[in-house]
Amino acid sequence: QVQLVESGGGLVQAGGSLRLSCAASGNIFRINDMGWYHQAPGKQRELVASTTSSRSTNYADSVKGRFTISRDNAKNTVYLQMNFLKPEDTGVYYCNGHVVIHDTTSYKYLEVWGQGTLVTVSS
What percent of the chain has a predicted confidence (pLDDT) above 90? Predict the structure, then answer.
């Protein structure tokens, strides 16, 4: 019913920048919190940044001052601007959304994940 599709990953040299996008589609009534998670090779998935529907933001200490999360509620899209990239930022980045859908009789609250986009930072 709801899909999140990420884009913008790729290969970049250390110190470079990338901008990730995540677009939500489907029978969406509202999207509450949205976030980006990072999974480095051989490690667990960790929260990088999140934003509420009112655009409050939260960042992992490792990316503060380098990454910026933003969202366009009209487009159901969240972005992650990544600057001053480091080799340790390498991995798959997943978009996450807490989505409210409305069918004919009720509202349903879903947590939805994207398929991930690979970021590789070379030293």
Answer: 94
What are the per-10-residue average pLDDT scores of the chain (123 residues)? Answer: 95 98 95 97 97 96 98 96 98 97 89 98 97
Query: Strand 2-7's sheet: what is its strand order?
Result: 2-7, 18-26, 77-82, 67-72
CB atoms within 10 A of CB 123: 9
User: How far is residue 63's CA from residue 41's CA, in Å, rounded to a whole number?
Assistant: 18
Contact 116, 93 (CB under 8 A): yes
Q: Give the CA angle between residues 16, 3, 72 to the nearest 5°.
A: 55
As given in the structure block, the two tokens for residue 90 are 């390498």
